[in-house]
Amino acid sequence: MIVDAEPNNRIPVVDRINWRAVLASLLGLAILSSVALGPTWLISYMAGLLNSGMIWILSSVSALVAWVGLLMIACLQFVRSLRGRHKMATVLWLSAAAGIVLAFALFFTGTTPSSEVFFARGIIMHLEMQTDINAIQTWVESVDPSDCLDDQHPSRRGRHLARDDQPPVLKRQTGMVDLELDARGAPSVRLTWFGGKSGTWGLVIGRRDMRTPLSGPGMYGEKHTELRPGVYFWYVEA
Fold first, then answer.
1. Looking at the DSSP assignment, which residues form a beta bridge with residue 193?
2. How far apart are CA 108 and CA 188, in angstroms?
3. Of 73, 74, 99, 219, which residue is 20 to 30 A from 206 by alpha carbon distance?
4. 3-state secondary structure of 181
């Protein structure tokens, strides 16, 4: 004889996910990260990882617009919660609005890192996925300074290195390669990527004791960001 299971012995139902709490936590985390790192840090890093200046500019502008829209929503929700006398919601939306305003204030006053810093971090990660930067520095240390001079074009700041003349460690990356001398006359490699209207950027890889030069003056001067000893990112606006 088969005995049926008791009707009360049921497998407990898994509690449903509180999506409001999850979204509130994600929003809080996003606001805290934007206060500490700037409102465009993640977008800028991902654009650098993709090595796309156009994505960098468009997505950064879109991110700022999205933050402004979120600020407006937070203000509206704050007023609605205040009228409905929902104390907890009022405090949360007020904190969200204040956090967004603080993030913008720190970003536009230059207190938090600029978007170029995170774009540069993404670029060097992009390069590390293609080749070995330490191996490039080791190769640079073996280059003779006279090999960085272009006898046919004395006005050039360095010598273009054709792909057939590049060592294997440089052939694995996609940037244009030039040999040049740093401020102390030591060899270095300049990698260049052209982004059209979004500007031109790249990396300079030299000896590990190479110093990062100061950025050029004005809007269209070459801007420099040191990434590690002997490696810095450069960027020129279009």
1. 201
2. 34
3. 219
4. strand
Helices (H), the chain: 19-37, 41-49, 53-83, 87-108, 115-128, 133-141, 168-171
Tell me which residue of 55, 204, 175, 203 sits closest to 115, measured CA to CA. Answer: 55
174 lies in the same domain as 230: yes
Q: Is residue 142 part of a domain?
A: yes
The ranges of the chain with pLDDT < 70 are 1-15, 151, 153-156, 219
Span 161-196, pLDDT tens digits = 989 999 999 998 989 999 999 989 999 999 999 988
**Angle subtended at Cα 200 by Cα 119 and Cα 105, rounded to the nearest 5 degrees:** 40
Q: For the whole prediction, is pTM greater than 0.90?
A: no
> Is 118 a member of any domain?
no
Q: Do residues 100 and 74 make contact, with C-beta atoms less than 8 angstroms apart?
A: yes
Strand partners, 223: 235
Give the pLDDT score at 233.
96
Angle 53-83/41-49 helices, nearest 10 degrees? 160
Q: Are residues 103 and 137 in the same domain?
A: no
Q: Distance between CA 18 and CA 156 in Å, rounded?
A: 63
Shared domain for 232 and 146, answered yes or no, is: yes
Dist. CA 234–CA 195, nearest whole Å: 13
DSSP 156: S
Same domain, yes or no: 155 and 201: yes
Look at residue 125 and tell me if it is in a domain. no
